[in-house]
What we know:
Elements: E1 3-9, H1 22-29, E2 33-39, E3 52-53, E4 63-64, H2 66-76, E5 86-95, H3 98-105, E6 109-113, H4 124-127, E7 130-134, H5 143-155, E8 188-189, E9 192-193, H6 203-221, H7 223-228
The structure holds S-adenosyl-L-homocysteine.
Amino acid sequence: MPWAASVLTLYPEMFPGPLGISLAGRALGDGLWSLEARNIRDFATDKHRSVDDTPAGGGAGMVLRPDVLAAAIDSVADAKDPRRPILAMTPRGKPLTQPRVRELASGEGVVLLCGRFEGFDERIFEARPVEPVSIGDYVVSGGEVAAMVVLDACVRLLPGVMGAASSGEEESFNEGLLEYPQYTRPVTWEGRTIPEVLRSGDHARIAAWRHERALEDTRLWRPDLIERHRGGSQAPPSGARHEDESEIK
Ligand code: SAH
């Protein structure tokens, strides 16, 4: 069984969208994962097919009804024993991290619930095993782009999706740090030259330089990650991955 994604959304026509091209799209075509988008509106019960109502206590906007959301969830997942985690896209959720993405990618798939308007009636989180997940501390207008972020991050880690050489082992966040900076040809561009060490062919020096720059840039841009980055290996990452690639001299 390939890794299976089910998306519950008011806009199923948005899928696969960007997930239908490049890496994720090729993998979808090759059957390395599957994607179905179900319309939440199909689970409305009244004659107007309404999925939302005004917020209790007053305020702007509309809130997605729990009965309709539950019916949509129950249509794809055994709510008592979900084989796939059910994630609700919401800025009120736990921020998604690369370790969580790795966990999700190593499982059987996910069920993603996309919000619109003011979001979900809170009771859905009590009545079903739904995990609130955020893609970051900002607000987008719908859960669909958030779901695409989650799916893209997972799918690229599935076996066979990325080439063996770039298995993602040295990426940002894997060691709790940002990745080191990258360069490519031309060697000199607008008077700026690629750091000499990267052209030296000395893999140990390159690895040490990269580790140093990863630390430095993480300190600069993400001091919060440095605080969490304790223990573990202080040794520079192996430069082995680059050994059989053509070197820039
Ligand atoms: N009023 C809500 C935001 C609603 S935005 C609040 O302040 O919390 C509408 C929908 O977009 C949400 O239900 C959610 O599904 C999605 N969304 C917006 N920002 C998101 C984020 N940072 N992470 C995940 N989903 C998000």
